[in-house]
Structure prediction request, 320 residues.
Amino acid sequence: MANGTLRMTRAVRFAPLALLLLIIAALVWRLATPADTNVHSTLEGKAVPGFDLGEALPGKPALSSADLASGQPHLVNIFASWCVPCVTEVKVLEALRERGVRIDGIAVRDRPEDLAEFLALNGDPYERIGSDERSQVQISLGSSGVPESFVVDGKGVIRYQHIGAIEHSDVPMILAKLEQAR
Amino acid sequence: MKRWVPAFAGMTMILCSPVLADSNLPPSYWSNRQLPDARQEAQAQALMEQIRCLVCQGQSIADSDAELAGDMRDLVRRRIAAGEKPSAIRAWLIDRYGSWISYKPTAEPAAWPLWLAPIALLLAGAWLIRRRIRLKGR
Prediction:
């Protein structure tokens, strides 16, 4: 019995060291492969929640969820004139529009005069723009920031969520997602 | 000395980026305003303390100064004022962002270790104490 407890305590004595090494290994692993801190919408594969936004600019058609179920796939871009990455993204969206992509915008917390200036400066790839003054449609889509984009198929079902700006290198992938949504 | 200027400019830009990332609109009406009905406000406050901010992850929307958190408080207060139950609003948010959005622990399988750990630790402690008492008795 005495012998047994001695062996036991020896193993127990090294347990804190083993635990420490385990914790260090876990920390090193997490530092080397950082966790994905993006919050993904859980609405992929589900219908776009119903919404009906007012016009963001005089003369520009407004956006409602009914406009998205038009039989054609749409790219819904959540953006804002006050969002810095949106400035570069809008040029990539212009390239997508030239390749026949229908792009609709949801302008978050924006003012018509700021939006007009933003579009005049950077180009306007949007068919329709809805004004989301209190971020309510953004929240109902499960989006957590600007810019974000949703590929919506012709029946109005969300097929893909892109978090962050669409870069030039993302164009083939976005086109493929739109093709799949056809 | 001049060498520090770009570094300083860079640092100021990084420190100021939250300012650049804010809109020109004032906060939404109910984001920083209490509901007139004290009972409804208490319900809204309790829920807002359990909903995670999407921008400052780790803060609740009740604590966060982010604009999106303000808009989420506006959403919570409007829905409570319209008579919706806090549990329904929480479920609506979980439908969109996953159970991540709520601080209230769930009973999902992923959370089972969390619920079982205290019981396991108590049992382990009891076993250790029992052994001690036995050894002393000899």
